[in-house]
Amino acid sequence: MNPDKFNELFSRLQGYLQGRDVFVQDCYAGADPAYRLPIRVISELAWHSLFVRNMFILPRNRDEYRQHVPEFTVIAVPSFKAFEPIDSTRTSTFIAINFAQQLCIIGDSGYGGEIKKAIFTVMNYLLPLDGVMTMHCSANHARGDENDVAVFFGLSGTGKTTLSADPNRTLIGDDEHGWGENGIFNFEGGC
Fold first, then answer.
1. Residues 95, 69: contact at Cβ < 8 Å?
2. In 44-78, which positions are buried (b, 16+ CB within 10 angstroms) versus exposed (e)?
3. Closest by alpha carbon to 122, among 73, 86, 166?
4. pLDDT tens-digit map of 119-152
5. How far is residue 173's CA from residue 137's CA, in Å, rounded to a whole number?
């Protein structure tokens, strides 16, 4: 998408939100503090806000909230539709990321997974620049031995989550991970 078209679409979205209530969550993507990304998610729907609150890592106390400075923002507005002839989109639904502005805008999609996948896309772009291998996988480790990590790769729906849920091992996560200097870490705060 042309950056000028992104800016026009973002301006229209901002105008649409004038005078409307929104929900804001400040949280982190990435369990390893060395590679953690502070994010802000602004959503039109309360359940999107709750989804984000459950999905990502929350600041632990008031001081962490005060010090939280988002490095990437997602704005999700399911009731806003792009107008293809003006916005140069293929449909009324859009998920557009502008890395220069550290901003993702989502419209005409009530699927909460778009928020999650947008942040995963950002992590998959940024982390390799810091020498971290990003992986769509599940992972667990032997109890008491964080160096004995098993990683399960596969397409969605092929059993990664099931295989990683071993009662004799500790789950690291079941969807997206990074492999950095400190080992394997989950992108989410949930499963």
1. no
2. bbeebbebbbebbbbeeeeeeeeebebebbbbbbb
3. 73
4. 999 999 999 999 999 999 999 999 887 779 999 9
5. 8
CA 119 to chain centre: 2
Phi, psi torsion values for 102, nearest 5 degrees: 55, 50
Residue whose pair of structure tokens reads 């490095």 in the numeric block: 71
Query: Whole-angstrom Cα distance, residue 171 to residue 139?
Result: 6
List all residues 6 or more positions away from 53 whose beta carbon is below 8 Å from its beta carbon.
25, 27
Q: Which of 167, 168, 164 is nearest to 176 (CA)?
A: 164
**Contacts of 98 by beta carbon, 8 Å cutoff, 6+ apart:** 3, 6, 10, 104
Give whole-number Cα distances, 115 to 27, 63, 89, in Å: 13, 26, 19
Nearest to 71 by CA among 20, 111, 130: 130
Torsion 176-68-22-93 (CA) sign: negative
